Amino acid sequence: MSRPTLTEHILLSQAAAPHATGELSRILARLSLAGRMISQRILNAGCLGEHGDTGEVNVQGEDVKMLDILSNDIFIRVFDTLSSVAGIASEEMEDIHLYDDWEMGKYFVLFDPLDGSGNIDIDGSLGSIFAVHARPEGDGPITQEDFLQSGKNQVAAGYILYGPATVFVYTAGQGAVSGFTLDRSVGEFFLTHPNMTIPDGGGHYSVNESNQTKWESDVVDLVESYRLGKTGLGKRGARYTGAFVADFHRTLLKGGVFMYPGLKDRPRGKLRYLYEASPLSMIAVRAGGKATDGVRDILDLKPEALHERCPLYVGSKSDVDYVMSRLKG
Ligand code: P6P
Hints:
This protein is α+β, with helices and mostly antiparallel strands. Helices cover 28% and strands 23% of the residues. It has two domains: 6-193, Fructose-1,6-Bisphosphatase, Chain A, domain 1, CATH 3.30.540; 204-326, D-Maltodextrin-Binding Protein, domain 2, CATH 3.40.190.
């Protein structure tokens, strides 16, 4: 059976959208290009001596790896010639970046160019995460404030998983979630996971249990109920890779819940809202799952800062409902 390519899927989706101009389609095609370029760069990084640190510390206070910068540069470049993108925001850049022809741009792209970069030198899975927002109406100059939008307003969202295979997963408009696998021999993504829906039951709980001493008591009790199999939801194995995209992808395919709770010394947790929690929560919700910060739906949150963090519990509906029932809020 010949599988549609990602390009064909984007064009078919555009044809089905009455007011589509093709601008979003070109953004998605450029995201596909960035994913293919980064995937190839990761494959060759070890041989090219591109595994190490840059010696820099980013706005997040994290050591910056060479591949973090190389991936960020690829994202900056792929949108440079696209008039529909007014500006971008990245985990690796303190401020927004506007392109020269920003006045013509209708969209913003926000991204984590290389998520899980602690896995680079152990040859573990990595990912890129992206969110596309519409530029707010108005002719005035674009400010950071324009990027601070709720997840429910995302025009498109998704991720690229750099694992043994490279997989591109996205949702656009009110559409379903679709997954594509890269065939390196022809440099194309092919549809391998049509209409992805998150199983309700089974799967795993995924959390960094070494943080237990930093959790509030309700979180400690919640995670223990999973560890002891006392959730009433049935068996859940434990899995944690240290790369959000990889842990999320497993949860999307197998079910269960991924958790990054707030910590006593870091109540907002670690994951950033605009380009990590928000886009993958959109994927989970469109696939029939749920996502919360422990109190509210992730997609309803309104960030007040570009790199704002939020606690995150995302996965199967039953698991997230159970999490909410156990947290004091
Ligand atoms: P910890 C990677 O640095 C990341 O941002 C996510 O990809 C991942 O889920 C999380 O941090 C891991 O953090 O504290 O468990 O090492």
